[in-house]
Amino acid sequence: MKYFAGIDVGSLTAKAVVVDENNRILGYHVMPIGQDSFAAGMSAYQQVLNKAGLKREDVLSIVSTGYSRKRFTEATMQKTEISCHAKGVSVIFPGVTTLIDVGGQDSKAMKLGKNGKVLDFAMNDKCAAGTGRFVEVMAHALNLSLDGLSDAALSFKNELSLSSTCTVFGESEVVSLLSQGHTVADIAWAIIKSIADRIVALAKRVGIGQDVAMSGGMAKNRALVARLEDRIGFDILVPDEPQIIGALGAALIAKEEK
Amino acid sequence: MTKFRVAETMKEIMAAYYLEAKNAAYNNTPVAWITSGGPVEFLYAMGVIPVYPENYAPMCSITRMSKDLMEVSEAAGYSQDICSYARTDIGADMTQGGPILGLPKPDMLIVGTNICHTVVKWFDVHARKYNVPLFIIDMPYLHDDMTKDAINYVVKQFEAFKGFLSGVLKKPFNEDKFMETLFLAAQVSDLWEKVLAMGKKKPSPINSFDTFIHLAPIVTLRGTQKAVDYYTRFYDELVELSNQGFGSVPDEKIRLLWDNLPIWYKIKYLSEFFAKHSAALVVSTYTNSWAAMQGDIDTDHALEELARAYLSPYINRGFKYRTDYLVKLVEEFSLDGLVFHSDRSCKPYSIGQYIVKEEVTKRTGRPGLIIEADMNDPRVFSDAQFETRAEAFLESFDR
Predict the structure, then answer these.
(1) Containing structural domain, residue A218
(2) What is the total count of domains within chain B?
(3) Domain residues for B61?
(4) Does A164 share its domain with A234?
(5) Which one, of B246, B231, B240, B226, lies nearest residue B196 by Cα?
(6) Residues of B in contact with A81 (CB under 8 A)
(7) Which DSSP symbol is given to B25?
(8) Per-residue pLDDT band at A208 (split at 50, 70, 90)
(9) Are A120 and B367 inside 8 Å of each other by CB?
(10) DSSP label of B105
(11) What is the CATH number for A219?
(12) Spatial separation of the C-alpha atoms in residues A199 and A212, rounded to whole Å
């Protein structure tokens, strides 16, 4: 049996996946990056090998992706996360035509063709509003975990809106809403609406098809997915482990290129 | 970027041009500061040396001086939202900075509004500082087709411009020299078009990064014999190279268009980036804008033809024209895709790019990439953000 690895060294987390020649996932690992992206990538890789019971020499080739893909010198080849997410989702949900990926510092919308070919894509521009980092900062301001923010948002009672789309100013706006006596749940929902609006605008740039999937860490946020489904009018397919789609795609590309 | 044989000549003629301009006051030669889309032919006809703040600003940027100069003008109150050419130029003027230590003092200022309206305010700042006359030629934006009214409107102003020059310089307008200048300008415009058309060859012996650099003589010396000689030699060299099968990008696989101004401070980096991915930028809407004049001028309608040429630049045209034009270039240059530089400083160029891109993709099937940057402000550019977007775009041509 031949094995292939994909390492996604993103802005906040490192993800590693190993697949075999039948596209079967033998293991995956997700961990925060800290200061050294290469070390984090290597550590994620080692962990996934341990989980799969493999040694380094068992792996035929490695593709790295994510912001620090070039720093991961163990890789046989580098690919952007856009190509990798597209490839990864096309195996899990064949037939998906629109992929929304919301990661730590990026949000992207992709229009997909056959076999995960990227036909068009749009990304957030030079601003962290509309990304995972935005939600993280806001959750922190509310003293909530990411899951806690999602749960709180789903129990909102009153519609509020965040006027600002800037992460830094957004945080002060959240603090100001708190001091005005609004509930955490209502503010959490306003945060979710704010990021969802940014993502929908992005997705509209490439055109939204009927078969929509979402990847990236933010796909785990149930409130965000619900809001997005409401805004675009279609159900969104979410993989069991949305964070590893990029690394999975990288591993699949490693297999194809061999 | 290719080191063409003529590059040495360009260095020499540009150095000679700037030396002459810097020494103009000693030689009693009048100097006019003029916008990039201003009608320089009138100036050459009257022995005035035209100087371009819009040429000096990128010179400051390529030599990595623009950031410091912009900080000077920003500290003086010019907002970061103002055009980075204006901020660089005003900073260079305030400090007499940049690679040639400031531009020679102007005797007059000439503005054409075919590129934007920032130039009106920007040159107004200089007019107040130097207390010299400012002549504004209003060249209306063409939302739809070229109109007879727009041409007549500009012709009337050209006539007034002759009177203005004659008044400031205290001598009659030299019609003979003007006609001679027009012929030379039209000739060089034709030659430039032929140079740019070499991008149609497969592989292309020239790419946009080369043409951005070799644009300097046609902007500054349009209407002189020097420019005609230069582009004649450049064209011959390109034909020779092409006949030998030379490609500006080794192993050319992807043929692209560049829209909007160059990102001057990143030219080398971008040129190497695209070359590494076997992608050649074989045509650009920006450099094409200086190829608007036709070679054989009808002397009875010279001003009309000139007006038509100055109304024609891509940046002065509406979205429908832009879309049709890009679709035409996709065909003519066998393009695989389009790269749009969304230029924070140049709003009239950048507006509508998303719609135009979508429409061109719909009509040609060729994808487009939008890069967020700025022509002169390096603080706006992020390597990592650019690389992720551009590499993903280039990867989409695989398989």
Answers:
(1) 95-238
(2) 1
(3) 7-156
(4) yes
(5) B231
(6) 388, 392
(7) T
(8) very high
(9) yes
(10) P
(11) 3.30.420.40
(12) 13
- For residues B323 and B325, what is the distance between their CA atoms, to the nearest angstrom? 5
| A103: three-class secondary structure by DSSP | coil
pLDDT in tens, chain B (399 residues): 899 999 999 999 999 999 999 999 999 999 999 999 999 999 999 999 999 999 999 999 999 999 999 999 999 999 999 999 999 999 999 999 999 999 999 999 999 999 999 999 999 999 999 999 999 999 999 999 999 999 999 999 999 999 999 999 999 999 999 999 999 999 999 999 999 999 999 999 999 999 999 999 999 999 999 999 999 999 999 999 999 999 999 999 999 999 999 999 999 999 999 999 999 999 999 999 888 776 667 888 999 999 999 999 999 999 999 999 999 999 999 999 999 999 999 999 999 999 999 999 999 999 999 999 999 999 999 898 899 899 999 998 975
Rounded distance between C-alpha atoms, residue B211 and residue B216, angstroms? 9
The question of ipTM being above 0.95 is answered as no
Nearest to B114 by CA among B17, B62, B40: B40
How distant is the Cα of A172 from the closest Cα of chain B, in angstroms? 24
> Residue B362, Cβ neighbours under 10 Å: how many?
10
Q: A232 and A105, same structural domain?
A: yes
Residues A102 and A226 in one domain: yes
The count of C-alpha atoms lying within 13 angstroms of the C-alpha of B124, restricted to the half-sphere facing its C-beta, is 6
Query: Which residues from A are below 8 Å from B366, CB to CB?
Result: none
Domain contains B281: no
Q: With an 8 Å Cβ cutoff, is B12 touching chain A?
A: no
- Residue A209, min C-alpha distance to chain B (Å): 16
**Is residue A111 located within the same domain as residue A187?**
yes
Quick check: B354 contacting A, CB < 8 Å?
A: yes
| CATH code for the domain in which residue B113 is found | 3.40.50.11890
In this complex, do A106 and B361 lie within 8 Å of one another by their Cβ atoms?
A: no
**Both A20 and A137 in a single domain?**
no
- Positions of E strands within B219-336: 254-259, 279-284
pLDDT at A124 over 90: no
On whether both A216 and A161 belong to a single domain, the answer is: yes
Distance CA B389, CA B344 (A): 17
Is the CB of B395 less than 8 angstroms away from the CB of A81?
Answer: no
Determine the distance in angstroms separating the CA of B121 from the nearest CA of chain A, rounded to an integer. 29
- Phi, psi torsion values for A153, nearest 5 degrees: -60, -40
Whether A107 and A83 map to the same domain: the answer is: no
pLDDT, position B234? 97
CA–CA min distance B304, chain A (Å): 41
Please tell me which residue, A202 or B123, carries the higher pLDDT value: B123
Place of tokens 């130029």: B89
Number of domains in chain A: 2
* Both tokens assigned to A172: 């002060």
Buried b (16+ CB within 10 A) or exposed e, A130-167: bbbbbbbbbbebbebebeebbbbbeebeeebebeeeeb
Let me know if residue B141 belongs to a domain.
yes
- Does residue B42 lie in a domain region? yes
Non-local CB neighbours of B225 within 8 Å, separated by 6+ positions? B184
Contacts of A117 in chain B (CB under 8 A): 396, 399
Q: Are A2 and A21 in contact (CB under 8 A)?
A: yes
- Token look-up 């490693």 returns A254
Helices A222-232 and A146-154 pack at an angle, to 10 degrees, of: 50
CB A7 within 8 A of CB A18: no
Tell me, yes or no, whether B79 lies in a domain: yes
Backbone φ and ψ of B51, nearest 5°: -125, 140
For residues A233 and A156, membership in a common domain is answered with yes
pLDDT, position B295: 64
